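Recall the central idea of this unit: under ordinary conditions, the amino acid sequence of a chain determines the structure it adopts. In this exercise we apply that idea directly, starting from the sequence alone.
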Amino acid sequence: MRILILFFIFISCAWAQAASVLKSGASHFFENGDRSFLSHSVLGPVCSTVRTIRAEPTCNPALLGENQMWSHGVFGANLFFGNDIDTLYKNRDLIAGEDKMKLAQSLLSETEPVSFEASTLIWWRAEKMALSFQPQRMTYFSDVRNQSYPDVAIHGMQEQSLQGQIGGFVSENWRAGLQLRFLDRRFVYEEFNLFEALPTLDEQFQVKNQRAVFVEPGVAYELNQTEDLQQWQPLLSLSASQTGWVDRNYDEIPVEPIVDAGVSISPPIALGEWELGLNYRWTANVSEARKFRWGTLYRLDFIELYAGYDPDEWALGLSANVRALSAGWMYKRTQLGDSAAKAFEDSHFFELRLAF
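Accordingly, the structure predicted from this sequence is:
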């Protein structure tokens, strides 16, 4: 009897751990679908309060108006991809749902978490407005624990989106903006015991559909009343995302409003341009450890450096541009599950961009 009780306790703990791994490893794919840029991905939510992102569309529409590079507007195309990109076929097979037994067998060979993300993006940004179209974004995450009695956490998504922004200064210190975003996605987001699911495998890997229209406002206030403040350029910002209409909401991954509040400064330096930011993200789906995040951006001529940190994740990024072409690299380390598990996922991402 004691052995049986211990067995059920073990299974319950393993199931809870798998669920926490899926949430920490895949839930961010739903929240950051409009941020398929290297700079946005490294900074994370901090990009909502950083004004020195001047070429690509901003995370906070209120921060438009800083485009000093091309006053006539910037047209660009991005390719963003990384991590286990050689497993791209798993996203295809998971969403297609044609051979579930073959997919289940491939999961048994995984000895560590598998994850990737890839997207294509076409965009245009002027001084006070921006448009972007994402014809394809693919994400995937799977983690198999306890190979002798495998618990599976798996996610895959294919998403398309269209986004428009308008914003800038409304007075000497105040800025305001509005973002309108449409998205259409198909995804799988499940956790189960693979051996128990084999007799009814057709009931697993269920593909769900979701469409949404989001109206996402933002405001910012520049503190420049004194000469000392003007040198440091402090900025307070507030923005909301995922506010709008969803045709279907799912309990396992609910679409709930996100509020980002942040502050940034640009310390005066002799060479280049430097900005530091701190952001607080409020939403029911984010753990306490990840609500605060800091980030920094440094630009010198054709080189840009980025860094972002919170207790569960840190990231570094580097990009360089020559005329209209730029290339970038990003490294990210994410803690999966609770702090006691100490499981980490290391990711490498690359960005290729053409802008003119």
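DSSP finds seven helices and 15 strands in the chain.
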